[in-house]
Known about the structure:
Layout: H1 67-70, E1 76-81, E2 97-105, E3 110-124, E4 138-143, H2 145-152, E5 158-161, H3 166-172
Amino acid sequence: xxxxxVAAGETITEADLETQAVPKAYCxxxxxxxxxxxxxxxxxxxxxxxxxISLSSLQASSSPAHxxxxxxxxxxxxxxxxxxxxxxxxxxxxxxxxxxxxxxxxGATSSAETVxxxxxxxALDSALSGSPDAGYSLxxxxxxxxxxxxxxxxxxxxxxxIPQTAEGASDAE
Length: 173
């Protein structure tokens, strides 16, 4: 919870936070449980001092309320349709990081290259958390505008999974 009122649009710092035991009945279902879930995130709503913080009220949280709240500040969301016979479906989860690769050609030769590296998956089909059990055909990525342009310029892009780091492990929880 915050130790002061935090306005919508304001970034919450560790100094703004305190932890307290609160009965489950008084917490939102997606209440933050760790300082690291909240610190550094922009508040989408006014946070009243002394009340539990809902993860869906934070920009780019692990439990967004909708796609636009899943995107980091200054980024955009772009969706890729996957060919199920050549994709990683159903192996990826929301929060995983991937590289986007495409075959590029100069007219004489072509080669595969990474057009976007280490981008975060923010949705699988319409799921904003976890991974659908039956697989998925649409992956939504959190990218910069330049990365989005690179993906659009290469419509036959494919994803490659990258190893999870200690920081990525906490993102995927």
